[in-house]
Amino acid sequence: MRRVQICLMAAGLLLLPAWAPAPEIGPSLLWGIVLYFVLVLLIVAAMLGLSYVLGERHAGRARDEPYESGVPPTGSGHIRFDVKFYAVALFFVIFDIETVFILAWAIAARALGWPAYIDMAVFVIILVAALVYLWRSGALAWGTSARLAAADENPKLGKE
User: Fold this and answer.
1) Most exposed residue of 61, 85, 92, 132, measured as fewest CB within 10 angstroms of its CB?
2) How far is CA 40 from CA 12, 33, 53, in A?
3) Residue 132 to residues 39, 98, 152: CA-CA distances in angstroms?
4) What is the DSSP letter of 73?
5) Containing structural domain, residue 57
C-alpha cells in the first residue's frame, strides 16, 4: 500500500508537503481521483460541444483548399517521405516516454528503496541495449553508406 501512495505522489496525484505523512489510500481518495477524471472528461466534452454549436461553418471551394500563404497550391499534396523520418520520430517518442518513467522514479527513489533501484537499473540496462542495437543496425544513421557499413560490420543485423 505504501508503494501505491509513493507512485501516486510521484505522478502528482497526491500533493503533500515533504514532512507530511502520506494518507492511507481508501475509498475517499479513490473517489476523489475518479471524480477528478470525470470532471476533466465533462469539461473536455463541454468545450468540444460548444465549439461545434457556436463555430462558424463556411461552405465553398476555397474552404476545401489548403492554405499556402496566399499562393495557389501546385502539385500533389501527397509527398512520399522516407521511412527514416518516421523511425526517428518513433525512437524519440519511445525514449522520451522512458525519460518520464525515469524522472518519476527519481522523485520517489529514496522512499521506494533498493528494490525499485534494482528495477530501474534493469530498465536502464534494457534501454541501453536497445539503443546499442539501433545504433549497430544503422537505424540511427541517416546516410545510405553509413547504414550499409553498419550492415557489413554485422551481417546478422537488419540488411536492407
Assistant:
1) 61
2) 16, 11, 20
3) 44, 16, 16
4) P
5) 1-79
